[in-house]
Design brief:
homodimer; alpha+beta; Arc Repressor Mutant, subunit A; Enolase-like, domain 1; 5-stranded antiparallel beta sheet; 3-stranded antiparallel beta sheet; 12 helices; 10 strands; DNA-binding
Chain lengths: 338, 338
Amino acid sequence: MALSERKKRILQAVVRDYIHSAEPVGSRTIARRYSLGLSPATIRNEMADLEESGYLEQPHTSAGRVPSQRGYRFYVDSLMETVALGKDEVAAVEKILKERREKEIEQFIQQISRVLSSITNYTSLVFGPIIRKSAFKQLKVLSLEPGHGLAILITDTGFVKHKSISLPLALEERELERMVAYLNHKFYGLTMDTITSSLLKEVKSDLINNVGLLNETLNLIEDAGRSEDGKLFLGGTTNILNQPEFRDVNKVRSLLTLFEEEALLESLLGSASPTGIEVRIGEENKLEEFKDLSMVVTTYQVVGRNMGTIGILGPIRMEYARVITLVEYLVLRLNSAG
Amino acid sequence: MALSERKKRILQAVVRDYIHSAEPVGSRTIARRYSLGLSPATIRNEMADLEESGYLEQPHTSAGRVPSQRGYRFYVDSLMETVALGKDEVAAVEKILKERREKEIEQFIQQISRVLSSITNYTSLVFGPIIRKSAFKQLKVLSLEPGHGLAILITDTGFVKHKSISLPLALEERELERMVAYLNHKFYGLTMDTITSSLLKEVKSDLINNVGLLNETLNLIEDAGRSEDGKLFLGGTTNILNQPEFRDVNKVRSLLTLFEEEALLESLLGSASPTGIEVRIGEENKLEEFKDLSMVVTTYQVVGRNMGTIGILGPIRMEYARVITLVEYLVLRLNSAG
DNA sequence: AATTAGCACTCTATTCACGAGAGTGCTAAT
DNA sequence: ATTAGCACTCTCGTGAATAGAGTGCTAATT
């Protein structure tokens, strides 16, 4: 059932007003604030219709209307008008992009998370590139002092992982080099999680000498392949507490507790579709704690592969247009910078 | 003015009861729950005295008594009895200590923070060894691919910092080695923050070739010396929200916001005396947001030097005895493990 | 002289009733 | 088809009434 143009305008007005006021909006308010050329009574009738078709809700008989989830959904899909980014916002994004090369990748991602939350005033969840999905680029083994060394693993996405290992005292320099060269040859270009235990076993049987050293080094590689540490960066956790819907301490607690469970959040964000921006409104979220929140989720690329996920978490009455524009712009710039 | 033995026992009872109930405790309660062999009336009289001398307070005329800050202070200084650690608690501490070598230092510290908060049910703040105060051990420069390399800095405390650098294409292997050897020779054993810019300048003028490469590498070292990132690990942030004194969302927010300001917290914890355990009760804390909280603070050592700080943050009515015992034990074990 | 029983008193927290205010839904007029 | 008008509904804040907890004081007891 399609909505009349007038109903759409009214719905739009209700959503907009509620997004800013967080108070149920009445017919009089709409008539005054939005010049629709209609009297409160007419608006009342239309709102009653909108309620019947499920786009609006009434907290109680004598209160104004509040958008329902369906109302928000319709707003996001059809009513929302794109907004332009402010100069400051663009500047903030460009600033961190410029500094990208100077930082380690994790710091860079943390920056992204901070900027997002400070611009939006919501909470940002950013997953960085997952080492598991990165490709083996190079392995180096340094001997630091007699008996001790450092194995260093470098991936194409810029990860540098290291692990201190013990080196047999009797080990010859050339022997070590030969071994490292062999490992590099064997693993080069493979994504870390495809370096399976069978491949590792094969390598081990090829290099039957130096088992101790080898084991420790291979552990580094194996860990990288298995590691769940698609590390999460949270930004502006406290922002969301400013929302009037968080007046209840229990809600605060359960949400904050959730924030400490990285694994859960990862599975949540991980399910983002690899193209475009996804808006999850209230109940559309899978997690109980998010049922009265909304999220704008998207993935971004590094080296042309889908590597990370960005999510902005806010109240259901979040400023969808602003958030979407911002995220869209950021991802565009991230991807293009390759 | 010294307190009579009986007053001490009553004060002790009040503190203990309040620590567990968080409710003002009345004379009747004390008479019933603690077998002091006294009637409520007698206890009432004593409590009135204790109030007059500032050890107890009354929220309002017809409520029970609550320990004042002075009361807690006296309790901590003279009344508190040491408690034994539970088996589980010892086991949990030993477990992470055992896994120490397998982890990078930062992960290890995070573990400590987690264990502390889960045992105490309070919030733990743990500062790791500060790279700034660690000593230069070794510098390595790897050439990864034409034009690109990786500089690696290793400190005596187990930090491994790296930075990708660009290598001049024309650079000869031997030239690079010579330079790195020189830097190692120059810096070995110095704490990072004593590697001043004048020393760096000196090095630069000694090695007038390869300025670009040199600059990037020295940046790594300089950053390490200046870095404020005595990184903070927070554990159990939500624990503290379970305390009844955090029923107010504004309080929650201001505390959580504070938790995001690492620098502030560092300065706060940093001022811990380098010996023994310090208990800061309420107003004794410097930070406004901590005025109605208490902290148990201490420092721990790595390689025999004071390197990190541990703080447990809880309500003023925290279980001082339990927390102190736990922290004492942990630090003892940390220090002894060298 | 110290302790205790008894009792009046104080203060809080909770419940209930009441009125103001906001907003609706319906009817009748435009 | 729109709008003015009005009765109706529901929430929220205020104030009064009440129950409960705990004290402080006085007088009795040990």
